[in-house]
Design brief:
The protein is of the alpha/beta class. The protein has one domain: 5'-nuclease (Rossmann fold, 3-Layer(aba) Sandwich). It has helices spanning 7-14, 21-32, 42-56, 58-71, 79-87, 93-105, 128-141, and strands at residues 2-5, 37-41, 73-75, 109-111, 125-126.
């Protein structure tokens, strides 16, 4: 199962933003354990580097990015993704880019804390805790 994590979910883990970090950490652990195929949008990686460099410096930012790249696959952003994002009916362009990159990568679920920003999504959208619960139910059904 391919799951793309929105930037806010990954930042919840990296910045230990409570109470959100608990569910987000469990989901990333499932990706690390190979229970799900975790993805991040290419723009998420650049955003995380930028924010980490501002807070902790370039060396720590590089370590965060290396860690993410070892854990998650990257949904690429190219001209087609950007053109489709411009044409999409999303309020937020960044969310449209993330959605279109996820479509191109064949992602089956997007996990975000801003589900309302993805009303026009063609991919099922889940809050982290909701997805954890659904994942556990699917696992029991197997």
């Amino acid at each position: 199962m391919k799951v793309l994590f929105d930037t806010n979910v990954i930042l919840d883990v990296l910045l230990d933003r409570k109470p959100f970090s608990a569910a987000a950490s469990l989901l990333l652990a499932k990706a690390e354990q190979g229970e799900i195929a975790g993805f991040a949008c290419a723009t998420t990686i650049t955003t995380i580097y930028y924010l980490a460099a501002k807070i902790h410096g370039a060396k720590m930012a590089s370590l965060h990015v290396q860690s993410l790249l070892s854990l998650l696959s990257v949904a690429p952003v190219n001209k087609l993704v950007l053109e489709n994002a411009v044409a999409a009916q999303f309020r937020d362009f960044e969310d449209a880019v993330l959605h279109e990159a996820a479509l191109l990568a064949g992602v089956q679920h997007i996990v975000t804390r801003n589900a309302s920003d993805f009303k026009n999504s063609l991919i099922p959208i889940h809050e982290p805790e909701e997805f954890l619960h659904a994942f556990e139910l699917l696992k029991k059904a197997d």
